[in-house]
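Journal club prep — side note

Before the paper discussion, L.F. wants everyone to see what a predicted structure for a comparable chain looks like in token form. Sequence:
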Amino acid sequence: MKVLECKAYIFRDYAKGGTLAGKEILAINGVPAARIISTMLAASMKDGDVQTSRQRDISGDFASNLVVLLGLKAPYKVTLADSGTNQTENVQVAGLKHDELAKLSKKLYPQDQASKDFADLKCLDGGKIAHLTYSSFGTTVEEGEAFMKPSFEAIQSKGSKALILDVRGNGGGEDQLGKLLFSYLVDAPFMYYDDLIINKMSFSFAKYTDPHRNLIVPEGLAERRADGKIHMVQYDNIGLEQPSKPALTGPVYILIDGGCLSTTAEFLTEVHTHHRATFIGEESSGCYYGPTSGDVVKIILPNTKRRYLSRS
């Protein structure tokens, strides 16, 4: 499924040999698509109230949300509209379990499977254009550094005059790598983080974490200031940063979408602030003036023993 401009479309058809792909869903089991989508959006994440990320979120969980949020069950009677002919039709599909869908996806649409490489560099037009895909900042800082430096050295050696940077679907990761990537796109010192604020020096739910973590900010790492907030005083991204060499000073075109979160959103903010690129695609996610982020911890509720993920 793909939800675009609050309308639901079939992206991959597993039931009818691909003939339904591209058609709009008007209703499922008599429930109008508008009600289905509004219900799912109300339960989705609201990162800066960015609509593209919310619609992307419910696109990926559309099938399970039909059951969990709407209470709909198989078989599904689906009312469809063909955008080309404006004709409507009703089809019935049995519904498949998630594991069965995953197996079919790998078999029928291998191009949809996530890349095992976090980044890739290609040269286009005889090396005049560099095409860099960065699908995740979730690698270690050392691994990211080991990729970036030789990549930009290769871009320089090829004499590339422009860079196409694809960060679509990059959900973030190590924030130092966002700063490092930006440092190759400028040739003058820059500020990356102005400030970093921590909610608390310790967290009362730490005793319920699995595995157990104390979640106490180490002494000397942060301080409470006159504004009453706790500010980090030691962090890699705070302070004046230096550009990395070899820097690429030519035109940069960045492909973005609603899947650009966290570190990626920070990186895009700096690029935009410095007027360093032309953006192509849809609105990225993340708050422009800074995200809310941190470690993800697993919490076991003491009475029900239910498990949840939470950010500290």
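L.F.'s comment for the group: The domain at 119-300 is CATH 3.90.226.10 (2-enoyl-CoA Hydratase; Chain A, domain 1). Keep this in mind when we get to the figures.
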